[in-house]
Amino acid sequence: MTFKANSPLETIQFAEKIGKLLKKGDVIAYTGGLGAGKTTFTRGLAIGMGLGDNVTSPTFSLVNEYLGENISLYHFDMYRIMGADELETTGFYDYPLEESVFAVEWSENISEELPDNTIYINIERVDDETRIITVKGDERFADTGN
């Protein structure tokens, strides 16, 4: 499924629809270059999950946690992680996936470690405002672009 967002607000609104459909154990794997809008998209996911909109990039912290009563969101940045050995040292496997949702930026760096049911979201920067967002891996999101 592909969606064209013409502003950061439209990116957030689209991601909010997806966030409302997420369930415990879901892994979102982002691809897209620097400045594509991965953190903006995560802000929309958090809103849709009922976790508020205080989302920031985890670039320097590796992971930001957004804890909720029923479900939590762990937002990872794997930009500096190259493979399973480095991933092990981050504590990635210690986070409770079965009770939460993972959103992973630079997921291509740990692609071999992602579960089979991963939801892939590619964000392509067209210009300063426009993004082409492609969602693959789960049919429950098929109608979210409407």
Write the layout of secondary structure elements.
Blueprint: E1 2-5, H1 8-21, E2 27-31, H2 38-48, E3 63-66, E4 72-77, H3 84-90, E5 100-105, E6 119-125, E7 131-136
Parallel strand pairs: 2-5, 2-6, 4-5
Antiparallel strand pairs: 1-7, 3-4, 6-7
Helix pairs in contact: 1-2
Structural summary, described in words:
The chain is α/β, with parallel strands linked by helices. Helix content is 22%, strand content 26%. It contains three helices and seven strands. It has a seven-stranded mixed beta sheet. A hairpin with a 5-residue loop joins β3 (63-66) and β4 (72-77). The longest helix has 14 residues, at 8-21. The radius of gyration is 14 Å and the shape is globular. The model has no long low-confidence stretch (mean pLDDT 89).
> Which structural class best describes the helix and strand composition?
alpha/beta
CATH architecture of the domain at 27-85 and 102-127: 3-Layer(aba) Sandwich
* Number of strand elements: 7
Helix fraction by DSSP (H/I, runs of at least 4): 10-25%
Instruction: Using the alpha-carbon principal axes, give the shape.
Output: globular
CATH superfamily of the domain at 27-85 and 102-127: P-loop containing nucleotide triphosphate hydrolases
- Please, what is the average pLDDT? 89
Helices, by number, come to 3
Poorly predicted runs are none
Please name the CATH topology of the domain at 27-85 and 102-127: Rossmann fold
Q: Distance between termini? A: 10 Å
As a percent range, the share of strand residues is 25-35%
Instruction: Kindly provide the name of the CATH class of the domain at 27-85 and 102-127.
Output: Alpha Beta
Order of helices and strands: EHEHEEHEEE
- The value of Rg in angstroms is 14 Å
- Biggest beta-sheet profile: 7 strands, mixed
| Spatial strand order of the main sheet | 1-7-6-2-5-4-3
